[in-house]
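[Discussion] Sanity-checking designs against the backbone

I'm trying to build intuition for which residues belong where. Below is a structure token string of 363 positions. I'd appreciate it if someone posts a full sequence so I can compare it with mine line by line.
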């Protein structure tokens, strides 16, 4: 096609990994001289971040999935500003983009699929992902691609493009001198940390069950959970039930996770489902040894025994054994962390931006 002019669309109000990826892509395109715009909700965290970066954006209020008025407004904006591609960064964004295409049929639609859940078996979901309206769907892991193929999405529509991270984002961050004092962690403790939203598929229940098992063998461990979400209080109650509350720190949402990552000795992702998991890449980028489950795209990042350790999902015993193994072997932690620094370069945000631009140019 002619020079791609891409309008990114994300109506979500919260700030999570998908919003970070969309922002990286928008900023990367602008830095490379491409025409790139952004549509978001006025009350969203994305709007605040885009403003902070002085990156071009426009707000349209999107109220519900099949908001026909918002669809018309999106189409009008795209036509008026000569955009020829909509990159739709969430499931709600895809619905919005398909409505816009009804008013502006020349638009090419690219959808992002960031979760490895099966596509719901209802008319709207099938229309969104298997219909003729969307031109390409970006799967951020092989596992997501395979799930979509099982659900009937045509293979020709799917493009594998891994999420990317700023592999140097935390280079200037140094561990806080009073970190352990602030979170009441003993100086001699081994800190096992995670960064994840408190939602079901992140499987904090597995994380804390493994913590309880590991602590029976090594009471010198201390666990830190960075994140917020609907299950936060439930997991606090679980830690109390397991009698490990004094060995767990709940930090809540943290805008700047670098200081936490730099303070950890071991990073764990305990998910039972995971699209890719960019928190793993962030941990690898600071040279942390990572333990992950064989869920979703996690095994596509971590090379078992080389740049981290992998265990089966929902297996708290196996996860506890892996934690104890690393806690007892400082040299192994250093070896895995060093290899993780090398491995993470394959998942840079620069590579992600280049791969998406290549896709646009092929439409």
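Best answer:
Here's mine. Compare freely.
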């Amino acid at each position: 096609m002619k020079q791609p002019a891409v309008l990114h669309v994300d109506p979500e109000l919260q700030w999570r990994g998908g919003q970070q990826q969309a922002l990286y892509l928008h900023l990367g395109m602008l830095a490379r001289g491409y025409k790139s715009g952004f549509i978001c909700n006025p009350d969203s965290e994305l709007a605040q971040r885009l403003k902070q970066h002085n990156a071009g954006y426009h707000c349209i209020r999107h109220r519900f999935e099949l908001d026909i008025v918002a669809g018309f407004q999106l189409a009008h904006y795209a036509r008026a500003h000569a955009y020829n591609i909509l990159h739709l960064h969430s499931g709600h964004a895809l619905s919005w983009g398909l409505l816009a295409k009804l008013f502006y049929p020349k638009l090419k639609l690219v959808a992002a699929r960031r979760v490895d859940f099966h596509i719901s078996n209802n008319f709207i979901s099938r229309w969104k992902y298997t219909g003729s309206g969307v031109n390409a769907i970006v799967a951020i892991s092989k596992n997501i691609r395979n799930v979509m193929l099982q659900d009937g999405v045509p293979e020709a529509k799917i493009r594998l493009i891994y999420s990317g991270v700023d592999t140097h984002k935390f280079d200037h961050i140094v561990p806080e001198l009073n970190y352990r004092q602030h979170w009441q962690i003993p100086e001699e403790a081994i800190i096992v940390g995670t960064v994840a939203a408190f939602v079901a598929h992140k499987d904090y229940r597995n994380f804390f069950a493994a913590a309880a098992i590991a602590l029976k063998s090594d009471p010198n461990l201390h666990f830190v959970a960075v994140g917020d979400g609907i299950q936060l209080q439930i997991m606090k109650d679980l830690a109390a039930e397991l009698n490990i509350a004094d060995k767990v720190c709940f930090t809540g949402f943290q805008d700047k996770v670098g200081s936490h990552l730099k303070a950890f000795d071991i990073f764990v992702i305990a998910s039972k489902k995971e699209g890719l998991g960019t928190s793993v890449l962030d941990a690898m980028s600071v040279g942390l040894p990572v333990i992950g489950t064989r869920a979703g795209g996690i095994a596509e990042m971590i090379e078992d025994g080389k740049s981290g350790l992998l265990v089966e999902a929902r297996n708290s015993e196996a996860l506890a054994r892996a934690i104890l193994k690393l806690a007892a072997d400082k040299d192994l932690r250093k070896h895995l962390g060093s290899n993780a620094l090398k491995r993470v370069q394959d998942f840079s945000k620069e590579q992600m931006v280049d791969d998406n631009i290549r896709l646009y140019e092929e439409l």
